[in-house]
Specification:
single chain, 255 residues, mainly alpha, 11 helices, 76% helix, 0% strand, transmembrane, Transport permease protein
Length: 255
């Protein structure tokens, strides 16, 4: 049974990835806006922003936040692709075939993971051209990739809920707007101690700040301490809630 599920998921993921390869503009579009924000903050606003980054450049400070914005923008396409398949009757055709039903969802999730990691790699490459430098070793890079994978999966399952529940294309993608905004109210671009009281409290207690701080410490080759535990706990918590909710919506939608 497990082999049947994995084989079906691999086949459907290959189909979904081929669609992405035929229209690579989705990956390019996902990367363009974060790169534009990065250029704006580094070359226009960066000189006026005090980060106390320990002598590092501003691009080193703000890149983790840009990577999270890249993911938040990218997962909206997962909701869009899922909605398009539902509206096009593809799900009904798959369900009439002897394949594992959950494989269709996992195919979209894994496609989102691959597409988002490619977009993140493009953004990191541009950041390197802009002067980003890291003291991270192999273990630190693996930890960075691991956190980003968890973050992508967590947000993608939220995108699955939106794609299954939406009644329009806009409804399937608009959920990502608050996610894109969250890094701006965190430690991603400025230290939280520069913010007024209520805003500072929110910034310090929302998931993006702990994730950004962990990625920043890993890139700098510094000890991450307990911050990474909080970051991973946020990602896993959102992932589990999103996964359970998405399966519940899926069962209700296909019955």
């Amino acid at each position: 049974m497990a082999a049947h599920f994995f084989a079906d998921t691999a086949t459907l993921t290959g189909r979904s990835l081929r669609h992405v390869l035929r229209s690579p503009d989705t990956i390019i579009t996902t990367a363009v806006m974060p790169i534009a924000i990065m250029l704006l903050f580094v070359y226009v606003l960066g000189g006026a922003i005090r980060t106390d980054a320990g002598g590092g450049s501003y691009i080193d400070y703000m890149l983790p936040g840009i990577l999270l914005i890249t993911v938040a923008m990218g997962v909206s396409y997962a909701g869009y692709r899922l909605f398009s398949d539902l509206r096009g009757g593809i799900f009904d055709r798959f369900h009439s075939m002897p394949i594992a039903r959950s494989a269709t969802l996992w195919a979209h999730v894994l496609t989102s993971l691959v597409a988002n990691l490619v977009s993140v790699a493009v953004v990191v490459a541009v950041a390197l051209l802009m002067g980003f430098r890291t003291g991270a070793g192999v273990a630190a890079w693996l930890a960075v990739i691991g956190i980003l994978v968890l973050f992508v999966l967590a947000l993608t399952w939220l995108a699955v809920i939106a794609g299954l529940s939406a009644s329009s294309v806009e409804g399937a993608t608009v959920f990502s707007y608050p996610l894109i905004f969250l890094p701006f109210v965190s430690s991603a671009f400025v230290p939280t101690d520069s913010m007024p009281g209520p805003v500072r409290w929110f910034a310090e207690n929302q998931p993006v700040t702990s994730i950004v701080n962990s990625l920043r410490a890993l890139f700098a080759g510094r000890p991450v301490g307990g911050e990474v535990v909080v970051a991973v706990a946020w990602c896993v918590g959102i992932l589990v809630v999103g996964f359970v909710a998405a399966l519940a919506v899926y069962r209700r939608r296909i019955t």
